[in-house]
Design goal:
The complex is a heterodimer of chains A (321) and B (253). Chain A is α/β, with parallel strands linked by helices and 321 residues long. Chain A has ten helices and 13 strands.
Chain lengths: 321, 253
């Protein structure tokens, strides 16, 4: 079941079309990284999901319901490090919990545990105005988790942090990933996305231009074989794909994972079928490579192009917050 | 409903704490003795304190104070900090009503302090303001402050986009210009008169409330005036909630 389902979302701000038919699906339990340059529409998408903005067109569901109905099951960590400066971390967190319907000893206990978990136990009674950026982001994670949400929407979490702060935050988010939270992480930090996400999507021109499993991008020693024949026989394609998920056929190109034995079996199958090999090269299909191809508008391997299915139902089912 | 009220009151407390600790409340606290000294200090001009004088001056002061306080609170809560709060179960409606409640708490507390200050100043001097008279005048005065706070909330940039805000302000100006001879005895003046009369109708509860507060004459019509004031608050808040529900939320730093 999908945690987030966005179908053919359009959003304009005056003459500026930010999203132009964005279709995206994030499964439950998945950590999905949404990449894109500044202004690509990442934050706009998060604000649409939170109900701050409304799509001009398209359909959005969160946790199988309208965004506003899912509010109690969402956690949100905003990009900007803006917090009320005059309350203490403990007061702030307790009030955020109260806004989500928590109260009493359970809320106090939850605040204690979370402040400990994010490493702010020694600063609980300090005013937020005196916090460093790293401390603010850690408090931000605590407030996003205070009501134990099913889905976390995280916008540029390491923006403005120094390398040590970035490292601390990535460790915190890794712990959340291990706990099984569904996370939509918007970022333009490729290393952050590579370290945290199961799948990644790249926005360009207001649409999802590429989508890939991070594991597929990070295979070491992977190779790509290019055949002399423009089209491989269907039976051969089926035989190759049956060798395992680390083999992907894309036209005349065959991508093979880093396992030596697997590469030998694919090459043997090709030679046995009488297919001439034009080229054998390292895949080089890392996240950086894919990102640069998307942002420079270069053609992508078919396996990274999202299979967009725009719903024929063009009704806007968005509801008021 | 109880849970919603609890969350709304938490926002009220949260906002008040931020408002007080940031020092913004100093404006109200300083304005209070300044107004007391300017208009209520016993001297040659003010020889005795009577209800009409007290509620006339206090009525004007607290209408202005309500407008300022509501405006300052809306500004405090129109920044991106609000996103994290509105994204929670509290929602937009709880956020807006919580802000309004915080303004009302400030206005009522400042009014009580102001009244206590005036009572101390006039404790050893002759006056005709009794406790019952004070209570009778305070209710419509505070309701008027509530009307102004609700109006400021409605026309705040957080709630209403620029165009409808300007339209409301223009209509308000036309209604309030009823007693100002803008065009002399011209056709324009004659044409404008019924429009001014029509637009002045929503202002009647506030104007009648001001008169009721100053005169303290609680006849049969007084209940109608108080109900009219309450209805004005209700209508203005309902319009503010409707507008805030529908608008796209873009909070700028």
């Amino acid at each position: 079941m999908a945690a987030i389902e966005a179908t053919d979302i359009h959003k304009r701000f005056g003459p500026l079309a930010v999203l132009q038919g964005l279709t995206l699906r994030v499964e439950r339990g998945e950590v999905y990284g949404l990449l894109g340059p500044n202004g690509a529409g990442k934050s706009t998408l998060i604000h649409l999901l939170l109900g701050f903005l409304r799509p001009d067109h398209g359909r959005l569901t969160l946790l199988d319901t309208a965004p506003t109905a899912a509010r109690s099951r969402l956690g949100y960590l905003p990009e900007r490090l803006n917090y009320y400066a005059y309350c203490t971390a403990r007061e702030y967190l307790a009030d955020m919990g109260a806004f989500s319907g928590l109260r009493g000893p359970a809320l106090a206990q939850r605040c204690r545990v979370l402040l400990q978990q994010v490493g702010l136990a020694a600063a609980v009674d300090r005013r937020i105005g005196g916090f460093s950026k790293g401390m603010l982001q850690r408090l931000g994670i605590a407030q996003a988790l205070i009501h134990d949400p099913e889905l976390l929407l995280i916008d540029e979490p390491t923006s403005g942090l120094d390398p040590a702060g970035q490292h601390e935050l990535i460790e915190l988010l890794s712990a959340l990933r291990l706990q099984g939270h569904t996370i939509l992480l918007c970022s333009h930090q490729l290393a952050e996305v590579e370290a945290l996400c199961d799948r990644v999507g790249i926005l360009r021109g207001g649409r999802l231009a590429a989508e890939a499993r991070v594991a597929d991008l990070a295979i070491k020693d992977a190779v790509t074989v290019t055949s002399r024949d423009a089209v491989l026989p269907d039976a051969l394609v089926a035989e190759l794909c049956a060798l395992g998920p680390a083999v992907a056929v894309d036209g005349r190109e065959i991508h093979i994972g880093g396992e030596d034995a697997l590469q030998q079996r694919v090459l043997r199958a090709l030679l046995d079928a009488g297919i001439g090999i034009a080229e054998l090269r390292p895949s080089g299909a890392g996240l950086v490579d894919l990102y640069l191809k998307v942002t420079h508008g270069q053609p992508l391997p078919a396996r990274f192009v999202p299979q967009v299915e725009i719903s024929a139902n063009r009704s806007n089912e968005y509801e008021n917050i | 409903m109880i849970n919603w009220l609890r969350r709304m009151l938490t926002l009220c407390r949260f906002t008040l704490r931020e408002y007080i600790r940031s020092g913004r409340v100093l404006v109200e606290l300083v304005a209070m003795p300044v107004v007391a000294w300017l208009f209520f200090w016993p001297n040659g001009a003010v020889k005795g304190l009577d209800p009409v004088w007290f509620f006339s001056m206090a009525g004007i002061f607290f209408v202005l104070l309500a407008a300022y306080t509501m405006f300052a609170l809306v500004r405090l809560c129109s920044r991106p900090q609000g996103y994290v709060i509105i994204s929670r179960e509290l929602g937009r409606r709880g956020y807006l009503i919580g802000l309004y409640a915080a303004a009302i708490v400030i206005i009522v507390v400042v009014y009580l302090l102001f009244s206590a200050l005036i009572a101390i100043i006039w404790s050893t001097r002759p006056h005709t303001l009794s406790l019952v008279g004070w209570l009778a005048g305070s209710l419509p005065l505070l309701l008027n402050a509530g009307i102004i706070a609700a109006l400021v909330l409605l026309i705040a940039p957080l709630v209403l986009p620029t165009r409808p805000r300007l339209i409301i302000l223009a209509l308000l100006m036309v209604a309030l210009s009823r007693n100002v001879d803008l065009f002399g005895h011209t056709a324009a003046s004659v044409a404008l008169r019924p429009v001014q009369a029509l637009l002045g109708i929503p202002l009647l509860p506030a104007l009648s409330g001001f008169a009721l507060s100053a005169e303290g004459s609680y006849g049969i019509a007084a209940a109608g005036v108080l109900l009219g004031q309450l209805a004005s608050i209700g209508v203005l808040l309902a319009l503010a909630l409707l507008a805030f529900d529908r608008r796209e939320l873009i909070l700028a730093p």
